[in-house]
Amino acid sequence: MHIDVAPELRSILHLGVLTLTGLSNGQHESRLDQPLAEAAAAVRAHPPAERESVRAMYRRTGLDPTRHRPSSEALLRRIRRGDPLPRINSLVDVCNWCSLEFQLPYGLYDLSRVDGAVTLRLGQDGESYPGIRKDEVHVAGRITLADSQGPFGNPSSDSARTMVTTGTTSALVVVFAPIDVSHQHLQHVLSVSSTRARTFCGGTEQSAAVV
Q1: What DSSP designation does 30 have?
Q2: Helices (H), 46-168
Q3: pTM of the complete model
Q4: Which CATH number characterizes residue 144's domain?
Q5: Using one digit for the tens of pLDDT, what is the confidence trace for 83-135?
Protein backbone atom coordinates (compact mmCIF):
# COMPACT_ATOMS: atom_id res chain seq x y z
CA MET A 1 0.00 0.00 0.00
CA HIS A 2 1.21 3.48 -0.87
CA ILE A 3 0.54 6.37 1.51
CA ASP A 4 0.80 9.93 0.24
CA VAL A 5 2.54 12.30 2.65
CA ALA A 6 1.33 15.89 2.55
CA PRO A 7 4.06 18.41 1.55
CA GLU A 8 3.96 20.23 4.89
CA LEU A 9 4.92 17.02 6.72
CA ARG A 10 7.71 15.75 4.48
CA SER A 11 10.42 17.63 6.38
CA ILE A 12 9.04 16.46 9.76
CA LEU A 13 8.56 12.70 9.49
CA HIS A 14 8.46 9.68 7.25
CA LEU A 15 6.65 6.38 7.57
CA GLY A 16 7.47 2.72 7.64
CA VAL A 17 4.53 0.96 5.98
CA LEU A 18 3.94 -2.78 6.25
CA THR A 19 0.99 -4.81 4.94
CA LEU A 20 0.27 -8.35 6.09
CA THR A 21 -2.34 -10.84 4.88
CA GLY A 22 -3.51 -14.33 5.83
CA LEU A 23 -3.20 -13.57 9.54
CA SER A 24 -4.54 -15.68 12.39
CA ASN A 25 -4.85 -13.21 15.25
CA GLY A 26 -5.49 -14.92 18.58
CA GLN A 27 -6.75 -13.41 21.81
CA HIS A 28 -3.81 -14.54 23.95
CA GLU A 29 -0.77 -16.16 22.37
CA SER A 30 1.10 -18.01 25.12
CA ARG A 31 4.30 -18.03 23.03
CA LEU A 32 4.43 -14.25 23.54
CA ASP A 33 4.47 -14.50 27.33
CA GLN A 34 8.24 -14.95 27.67
CA PRO A 35 9.47 -12.44 25.02
CA LEU A 36 7.11 -9.73 26.29
CA ALA A 37 8.18 -10.30 29.90
CA GLU A 38 11.84 -10.22 28.83
CA ALA A 39 11.32 -6.99 26.87
CA ALA A 40 9.71 -5.32 29.89
CA ALA A 41 12.47 -6.56 32.20
CA ALA A 42 15.17 -5.23 29.86
CA VAL A 43 13.56 -1.79 29.84
CA ARG A 44 13.33 -1.75 33.62
CA ALA A 45 16.96 -2.83 33.95
CA HIS A 46 18.23 -0.26 31.45
CA PRO A 47 15.51 2.38 31.07
CA PRO A 48 15.91 4.32 27.81
CA ALA A 49 15.15 8.00 27.67
CA GLU A 50 12.12 9.16 25.77
CA ARG A 51 13.12 9.64 22.14
CA GLU A 52 13.52 13.42 21.95
CA SER A 53 13.15 13.44 18.17
CA VAL A 54 9.64 11.98 18.50
CA ARG A 55 8.73 14.74 20.92
CA ALA A 56 10.23 17.28 18.52
CA MET A 57 8.07 15.82 15.73
CA TYR A 58 5.02 16.72 17.81
CA ARG A 59 6.28 20.18 18.69
CA ARG A 60 6.93 21.03 15.04
CA THR A 61 3.20 20.71 14.41
CA GLY A 62 2.33 22.80 17.47
CA LEU A 63 1.49 19.92 19.84
CA ASP A 64 2.69 19.51 23.41
CA PRO A 65 3.98 15.90 23.66
CA THR A 66 3.40 15.88 27.41
CA ARG A 67 -0.34 16.44 26.82
CA HIS A 68 -0.66 14.21 23.75
CA ARG A 69 1.94 11.54 24.42
CA PRO A 70 3.34 9.45 21.56
CA SER A 71 2.10 5.89 21.97
CA SER A 72 5.70 4.64 22.28
CA GLU A 73 6.38 6.97 25.19
CA ALA A 74 3.13 5.98 26.90
CA LEU A 75 4.23 2.33 26.75
CA LEU A 76 7.67 3.20 28.11
CA ARG A 77 6.21 5.10 31.05
CA ARG A 78 3.88 2.18 31.79
CA ILE A 79 6.78 -0.28 31.97
CA ARG A 80 8.95 2.07 34.04
CA ARG A 81 6.29 2.23 36.75
CA GLY A 82 6.24 -1.56 36.96
CA ASP A 83 3.19 -2.46 34.91
CA PRO A 84 3.35 -5.25 32.31
CA LEU A 85 2.88 -4.70 28.61
CA PRO A 86 -0.85 -4.72 27.89
CA ARG A 87 -2.26 -7.88 26.28
CA ILE A 88 -4.93 -7.18 23.66
CA ASN A 89 -4.48 -9.69 20.86
CA SER A 90 -1.43 -11.24 19.22
CA LEU A 91 -0.85 -8.62 16.53
CA VAL A 92 -1.40 -5.66 18.85
CA ASP A 93 0.89 -7.28 21.42
CA VAL A 94 3.65 -7.72 18.81
CA CYS A 95 3.37 -4.08 17.70
CA ASN A 96 3.46 -2.85 21.31
CA TRP A 97 6.60 -4.94 21.86
CA CYS A 98 8.25 -3.40 18.80
CA SER A 99 7.12 0.13 19.70
CA LEU A 100 8.58 -0.23 23.20
CA GLU A 101 11.86 -1.63 21.90
CA PHE A 102 12.39 0.90 19.09
CA GLN A 103 10.71 3.83 20.87
CA LEU A 104 8.74 4.79 17.77
CA PRO A 105 4.94 5.22 17.62
CA TYR A 106 3.09 2.48 15.76
CA GLY A 107 -0.33 2.59 14.13
CA LEU A 108 -2.08 -0.73 13.51
CA TYR A 109 -5.18 -1.02 11.33
CA ASP A 110 -7.47 -3.70 9.94
CA LEU A 111 -6.79 -3.36 6.23
CA SER A 112 -10.31 -4.47 5.31
CA ARG A 113 -11.67 -1.45 7.17
CA VAL A 114 -9.42 1.10 5.46
CA ASP A 115 -11.38 2.67 2.63
CA GLY A 116 -9.59 3.86 -0.50
CA ALA A 117 -6.38 5.84 -0.78
CA VAL A 118 -4.57 6.83 2.42
CA THR A 119 -2.92 10.17 3.10
CA LEU A 120 -0.77 11.40 5.97
CA ARG A 121 -1.69 15.02 6.63
CA LEU A 122 -2.60 17.51 9.33
CA GLY A 123 -6.13 17.17 10.66
CA GLN A 124 -8.59 19.85 9.66
CA ASP A 125 -10.74 21.96 11.98
CA GLY A 126 -13.53 19.89 13.48
CA GLU A 127 -12.14 16.50 12.43
CA SER A 128 -12.26 13.68 14.96
CA TYR A 129 -12.99 9.98 15.34
CA PRO A 130 -14.16 7.62 18.09
CA GLY A 131 -11.02 6.26 19.73
CA ILE A 132 -10.27 2.75 20.94
CA ARG A 133 -11.62 2.57 24.50
CA LYS A 134 -11.63 6.38 24.46
CA ASP A 135 -13.98 9.24 23.81
CA GLU A 136 -13.76 11.27 20.63
CA VAL A 137 -10.18 11.88 19.46
CA HIS A 138 -9.88 15.38 17.99
CA VAL A 139 -7.20 15.66 15.31
CA ALA A 140 -7.36 19.30 14.14
CA GLY A 141 -3.76 20.41 13.53
CA ARG A 142 -2.40 16.97 14.44
CA ILE A 143 -0.50 14.44 12.34
CA THR A 144 -3.17 12.04 11.10
CA LEU A 145 -3.82 9.24 8.64
CA ALA A 146 -6.99 9.63 6.57
CA ASP A 147 -8.81 7.55 3.98
CA SER A 148 -11.94 8.30 1.93
CA GLN A 149 -14.05 8.23 5.11
CA GLY A 150 -11.78 10.64 6.98
CA PRO A 151 -9.15 10.41 9.72
CA PHE A 152 -8.55 7.04 11.37
CA GLY A 153 -5.20 7.18 13.16
CA ASN A 154 -2.36 9.26 14.60
CA PRO A 155 0.87 8.61 16.53
CA SER A 156 -0.94 8.79 19.90
CA SER A 157 -4.19 6.88 19.40
CA ASP A 158 -6.11 5.09 16.68
CA SER A 159 -9.76 4.86 15.72
CA ALA A 160 -12.33 2.24 16.66
CA ARG A 161 -13.40 2.10 13.00
CA THR A 162 -10.16 0.52 11.80
CA MET A 163 -9.08 -1.28 14.97
CA VAL A 164 -7.54 -4.75 14.78
CA THR A 165 -9.55 -7.57 16.38
CA THR A 166 -9.22 -11.34 16.59
CA GLY A 167 -11.20 -11.45 13.34
CA THR A 168 -8.58 -9.43 11.47
CA THR A 169 -6.89 -11.35 8.65
CA SER A 170 -5.12 -8.47 6.87
CA ALA A 171 -3.40 -5.53 8.51
CA LEU A 172 -1.71 -2.24 7.81
CA VAL A 173 1.18 -1.40 10.16
CA VAL A 174 2.47 2.18 10.13
CA VAL A 175 5.58 3.33 11.99
CA PHE A 176 5.67 7.10 12.51
CA ALA A 177 9.35 8.06 12.41
CA PRO A 178 10.95 11.49 12.87
CA ILE A 179 12.80 12.60 9.77
CA ASP A 180 16.19 12.07 11.44
CA VAL A 181 15.56 8.32 11.70
CA SER A 182 17.46 6.86 8.76
CA HIS A 183 15.78 4.87 6.00
CA GLN A 184 18.13 2.00 6.82
CA HIS A 185 17.06 1.91 10.45
CA LEU A 186 13.38 2.23 9.55
CA GLN A 187 13.72 -0.68 7.11
CA HIS A 188 15.27 -2.70 9.96
CA VAL A 189 12.31 -1.79 12.17
CA LEU A 190 9.91 -3.01 9.48
CA SER A 191 11.87 -6.24 9.01
CA VAL A 192 11.80 -7.06 12.73
CA SER A 193 8.12 -6.12 12.98
CA SER A 194 7.22 -8.31 10.00
CA THR A 195 9.20 -11.29 11.28
CA ARG A 196 7.62 -11.12 14.73
CA ALA A 197 4.11 -10.64 13.34
CA ARG A 198 4.45 -13.65 11.02
CA THR A 199 6.02 -15.76 13.77
CA PHE A 200 3.13 -15.23 16.17
CA CYS A 201 0.23 -14.56 13.76
CA GLY A 202 1.22 -16.44 10.62
CA GLY A 203 0.36 -14.83 7.32
CA THR A 204 2.39 -13.27 4.55
CA GLU A 205 4.14 -9.95 4.12
CA GLN A 206 2.60 -8.27 1.08
CA SER A 207 4.66 -5.08 1.11
CA ALA A 208 7.15 -3.15 3.22
CA ALA A 209 8.31 0.34 2.32
CA VAL A 210 9.59 3.61 3.71
CA VAL A 211 7.67 6.65 2.44
Answers
A1: G
A2: 52-59, 71-80, 90-102
A3: 0.95
A4: 3.50.40.10
A5: 999 999 999 999 999 999 999 999 999 999 999 999 999 999 999 999 998 78
